[in-house]
UniProtKB/TrEMBL annotation:
Residues 1-19 form the signal peptide. The lineage of its organism: Eukaryota, Metazoa, Chordata, Craniata, Vertebrata. It comes from Heterocephalus glaber (Naked mole rat). It is found in: Secreted. One of its GO terms (molecular function) is serine-type endopeptidase inhibitor activity. InterPro entries: PEDF_serpin_dom, Serpin_CS, Serpin_dom, Serpin_fam, Serpin_sf, Serpin_sf_1, Serpin_sf_2. CDD domains: serpinF1_PEDF (cd02052). Residues 62-414 form the Serpin domain. This is Pigment epithelium-derived factor. One of its GO terms (biological process) is positive regulation of neurogenesis.
Amino acid sequence: MQVLVLLLWTGALLGHGSCQNIASSPEASQDPESTGEPVEEEDPFFKIPVNKLAAAVSNFGYDLYRLRSIESPTSNVLLSPLSVATALSALSLGAEQRTESIIHRALYYDVISNPDIHGTYKELLATVTGPQKNLKSASRIVFERKLRIKSSFVAPMEKSYATRPRILTGNPRIDLQEINNWVQSQMKGKIPRSTKEVPSGISILLLGVAYFKGQWVSKFDSRKTSLQDFYLDEERTVKVPMMSDPKATLRYGFDTDLNCKIAQLPLTGSMSVIFFLPMRATQNLTMIEESLTSEFVHDINRELKTVQAVLSIPKLKLSFEGEVTKTLKEMKLQSLFESPTFSKITGKSIKLTQVEHRAGFEWNEDGEGTAANPDLQPAHQTFPLDYHLNQPFIFVLRDTDTGALLFIGKILDPRGT
């Protein structure tokens, strides 16, 4: 495959075809001389336990996103998969071996050798939700009323995941108020209160919530923001507030297999957002979505080249509130809803009933400063480069320190989810 950075010869290629050949991928490479065991990845980045765990959990996130996108082919998709993964990982503390293995396979823990998954997860959460990150993420497990929970489950969950389980009172009004109060407390009021009722017949309810407001390393000039056309397809357009920078410094590449232009912009707190922009407004996004793995995105991060470009990005303020229960059932987790064994939690037979997700995401012109990063020296260009996010695109918000997937979105219409 030929992928030419900048659409001109620079001597550097985006190696799409080799990006998923890493042991934390479900299809790890194998040494023909070996006994069939996956070969340990060569990239030093993935030898760090917290990075390897982040890659595994992120691959769960890309799986979750792909299925949600299939379920919503004509509408925006916004997810913070980490919050859902955290709730599942915490729940696995209470599972016996068979049920634990089912959860761990979905989270890709089965392809990493880490004797202290939950201790490493604590380190991951501390890294990605640090005060400089602008990310709020929290998870909670809610159990049916009058359930007696073993302290041997509560203590390690609180130690590694900084959360305690909640037992329903059986009063729908009180339970709804308590859950909403918890969401408001965790998200500092950034996510609206739910208007829904607590479903009847709950045995185990998982709740994952997240909010992010991005701060660019180089802020946009609000005087250059204007209403511009966003192409829903080749015939229909809508007017949206578009931020502009005629001399933006960004990292860029073109993937010939996916027929899309890829750009990365840095955010404060060691985060970055990677955009996947198809060449045509009507181009199907499925091929791009199927390519997304932790390893592929990591390789992209290494191989994009710094350029100067005329840049325009729509202002975004999106939210999601709803169930991801059906999606998780399609991720080989069906048995958690039917016949799991959670004997480390309680002596009573319980099962997963519902998984809810609430997410808020926004960026505007706000940033740290106006000066370009002196460490980013644009490559020599023989012609000007434009990068306009004025048609459907996919974005990935990634923690640079660990590689963790924090948010992912499919934007078909920037006006809202």
